Amino acid sequence: MKKRTNLGLLTVILLALPAVTIYALMEQKLLKPKDPGELAESYLVKAPTFSYDGVPGTMNITGVFRARTPVSTWLVNIVFKCEHSGYGNRSGEELGQKETSHSANLIVQEGEVVSAIIDGEWDEINQEPVSKNHVMEFDLEDKSIIIDRALEFLSGCPTYRWDGVEDTVNVEGAVLLDTFPLQYSVTISFNSSHAGYGNRTGTDTAQVITPHTARLLLEESKVESAILDHTWDMIAQRTLQKTDLSGLIRDLAVEYIFENHFLLGNMSTPAHWMMDFKRHETRLEADEVTGYTCVQYHSGDWTVQIVYKAVLYPNYDVEVEYQGENWFTWRGQIQSNYNVTELVFEAI
Description:
Oligomer: single chain
Strand content: 35-45%
Radius of gyration: 23 Å
Shape: globular
Strand order of the largest sheet: 1-2-3-4-5-6
Structural class: alpha+beta
Number of helices: 7
Largest sheet: 6 strands, antiparallel
Order of helices and strands: HHHHEEEEEEHHEEEEEEHEEEEEE
Number of domains: 4
């Protein structure tokens, strides 16, 4: 009954608005920012390196990460292949017929690509080699150490150790996240000769080539999170549990939004979430050092960030941002007894 009343009131308000105002509202919706991954991919497709000899169908977004900055900033990692080596428009150069794989890190800030670095070597925006002082690239030696640590972790994991095919292992991307302390996201693909996860000794497992994608989150070379195919926790050696506490808080917040904001229309809740980071930090409060945990998830146009104090029964501060057709930001608090309190809901 409440929803019908609200809908009727909304209809009356819209009818009372002059045509110019309604047109302005429509224009605002049309000017809604695009998905950062799509923006980055669209930019890279038209940029000189890929437009010169990029191999169609090889471009793939391997990571989209929300940076913790005052303005809307996203880090996007994209892999692709070109028919020749080199960068930019290579017309007039002698090029060998060698298909070359590339990994690009792009920064999308307030709906615009402001940085695009390919292989840590080439500035695609300025069409020049990357300066050694480029702030968004981490040291090549550090990158090598992080990748080696990620590969070492993979080689010791039961899924890969049981039947992983060695010559199929490929590092799809390694990204330095804008977090403190610094964290690195490494994406690795490989094949197994059987289906399933973990040590499958004694199980009836189908003998079929099975592709896998592992996403690892490292902090100071320590693997903090390792998820295989959005399904398997490589550290805990178990299927991802929906009852994970931060995941439960996330789902409660999203469920509350759907139940209390009918203008979201026919949107559906995400089926799969990816953890961008989970970090622990300390804050000085009332002359005492207090520990906090901050967790961020994303799924398509959704980003959910959860912050809670390191106490026995914490309250969870939650911020949800959706950048799809019905763009909105929601902030609220979920108590330890799982009661939800809405603080802010802003829709565009």
